[in-house]
């Protein structure tokens, strides 16, 4: 049985990941600031920034589901990820990050991103930029077994669980219907599959509904 920790466990994506992992027989511990609202077998009420290496010792994988949306908290995408990397540095524990789609590339040269496109909503640019900056900093970490998983452009909280997805890489991937869409539930399947298989150490991957 794999032991995994989910940080910022009370969020909606985190809840889907926890539910998926528990249903497959994983031993899951949630860490969150608020009271437990998850299906994790174990729960620790503790802020991400207060976590120590001892807290995360013995886990096969840690899922980082941290999110911040206000102007003053957006820099925490970088600082929270750095903190988790620092306390996992040099260990065999894998770190899997719930990422964003804005930093996916739209050309083979990897010089243009989704968030730089003319149709990208202005309201989401600060968030996408903050998450893209955090990813860039993560790429410099050679001391952590990280995997960054970007969802499709249309990331649907209440979308159906189809049980199928396509695995992509650094570039925005469309399915055969020309869509870039995935539900939280199907994203969670991809996340837990990656925990099980561990095929993409120190890589960014992406997922889209099949």
Automatic annotation (TrEMBL):
GO molecular function: oxidoreductase activity, acting on the CH-NH group of donors, NAD or NADP as acceptor
A Pfam match: NAD_binding_10
Lineage: superkingdom: Bacteria
Domain NAD(P)-binding: 9-193
Name of the protein this chain belongs to: NAD(P)H-binding protein
Species of provenance: Bilifractor porci
């Amino acid at each position: 049985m794999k032991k995994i920790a989910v940080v910022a466990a009370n969020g909606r994506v985190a809840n889907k990941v926890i539910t998926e992992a528990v249903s497959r027989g994983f031993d899951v511990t949630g860490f969150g600031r608020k009271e437990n609202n998850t299906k994790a077998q174990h729960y620790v009420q503790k802020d991400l920034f207060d976590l120590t290496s001892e807290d995360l010792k013995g886990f096969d994988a840690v899922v980082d589901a941290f999110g911040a949306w206000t102007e003053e908290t957006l820099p925490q995408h970088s600082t929270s990820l750095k903190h988790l990397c620092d306390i996992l540095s040099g260990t065999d524990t894998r770190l899997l990050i719930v990422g964003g789609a804005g930093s996916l590339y739209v050309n083979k040269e990897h010089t243009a991103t989704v968030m730089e496109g003319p149709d990208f909503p202005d309201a989401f640019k600060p968030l996408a930029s903050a998450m893209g900056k955090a990813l860039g900093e993560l790429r410099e970490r050679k001391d952590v077994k990280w995997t960054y998983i970007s969802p499709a452009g249309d990331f649907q909280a209440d979308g159906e669980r189809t049980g199928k997805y396509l695995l992509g890489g650094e570039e925005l991937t469309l399915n055969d219907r020309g869509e870039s869409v995935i539900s939280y539930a199907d994203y969670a399947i991809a996340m837990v599959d990656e925990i099980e298989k561990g095929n993409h150490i120190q890589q960014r991957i992406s997922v889209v509904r099949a």
